[in-house]
Amino acid sequence: MSHLRAAAARGLRRSGRTAASPAGKRRKGASPRRGAPAPAPAPPPARHLFSDPAEVEALRGNLLAWYDKCKRDLPWRTLAASEPDANRRAYAVWVSEIMLQQTQASPFGDLVHCLWQIPSCRAWLCLSLTCPLPFVPQKWPTLQALAQASLEEVNELWAGLGYYSRGKRLQEAARKVVSELAGQMPRTAEDLQKLLPGVGRYTAGAIASISYRQATGVVDGNVIRVLCRLRCIGADSSSPAVIDRLWDMANALVDRSRPGDFNQALMELGATVCVPRAPLCGECPVKQHCQARHRVEKELAFASQKLFGKPTPVPDVEDCGVGDCPLCPPAAEPWDSSLGVTNFPRKAAKKQPRVARTATCVLERRGCHRALEYLIVQRPSSGLLAGLWEFPSLPLAQGLQEEKQREVLADYLRAWTGWPVVAEDLRLIGEVIHIFSHIHQTYVVYSLPLDGDVTLDPALSPSRWVTEEEFHASAVSTAMKKVPAGLGPFFPAISLGSQVLKACEKQRGVESSPGKGSKRKRGAKPQGASSTRPGTQLSLRAFLQAPTSS
Ligand code: SF4
Fold first, then answer.
1. How far is the CA of 47 from the centre of ligand 1 (A)?
2. What's this model's pTM, rounded to 2 decimal places?
């Protein structure tokens, strides 16, 4: 879903231009006549559109009636409905949308989206979300409060959610609203997208429709799935042409009087009924408008009549049949009867993540009162995990032997600390695997106890010695928090990452199939989703609620 949402957002950046269409594609060798207007793109075949106003009305009514009855009681919905101040309303929706993006990688999103599926967990979840979480400071109830926070504070509270640049951009945008827009949130989707850093087409549409009742659609992964099934769209759903069509469709479909509810209903339908693998078509409030379901029903009827030897006409279930329909499945991947409605949507094969290896060293010393302290350094202010803290780390060339790894790491530490580090003193702890959205990252973890004082070059990255407690409270990425797990007793409060365990088991000679731990199972939480320590996980409530007066 995350990638689809990103693709959808990219599609919006092209707002202002009409949807790309294959009809607009130039044939090889053909060139348009200079000065001649480009031919208007051919409209897609009717089966892929909502061209009947009566059907659109019926679909809106059915969907909203279902939403009124079945919607989940989520905290930001209550806030958006009850908060009289438009700026605070928009701010709450904005923060919730940013947190819920990349839901597969977000513990908060997983919490809401996964646990809500289990009836016995609903009460618990509801209770948790309505209770102030005692271990998280209550922060930033307004965008003015967020604008005044330091990036360090934002990073600290955001730690565990992943996609740290989002927290940073959220704060940048809040500062812009306060300093350049007199504290007033932009009031339309177009202005929100144009004026606020980090606000893409989807987020702008969600804020404007939910907070200001602007009749504008939204397209995220759930909406893509629902619309592709409703209109049998089988072309690559992450392609710009299809994304543009889906935005057109969402804008045309959105209910004019209840746009925010309609958009949330469409997303809710995708999250709870029209789910990726086993959609509950029998319970679907818009099943009578669903082309994918019609197709399945026709096939079933045809198959059963054939079984009983009844003469039946061949069902009208082919794709558009013109061979170059921009929205039908490609000829090489025709409809697969065994998949039913889950033939839609389709995506082009995903690009494999880049493989990267990094040597990481946990430098430890005895500090005040003989307490153990660990050295952490701050990453650069731009790029991956910008501004976050980590143990000293060094990217490794692929295929480097262990002996060589030690040597390059020792060289690096020697130059950096001025300490006479020798490769043999570095103790290999194991490997930690972390999956970023586009990188399969392996941290090769070493430790090195130091007996004396180390004078770090102040010209290099900021660094500091921290106790275990301070480490937990620092703006450290989820990936880096997996690292100390290998140190066992020194960091007892950290839940052990499975990869570290496997690595440690390997160290101790326990059998473990290589790479097994890095595989993501269907429906399993992505590696990055695990929160390493509950106390550092940020919730929307924690983000928005004012501190209780003492
Ligand atoms: Fe999705 Fe089935 Fe509803 Fe169609 S009928 S929208 S496939 S749940």
1. 16
2. 0.66
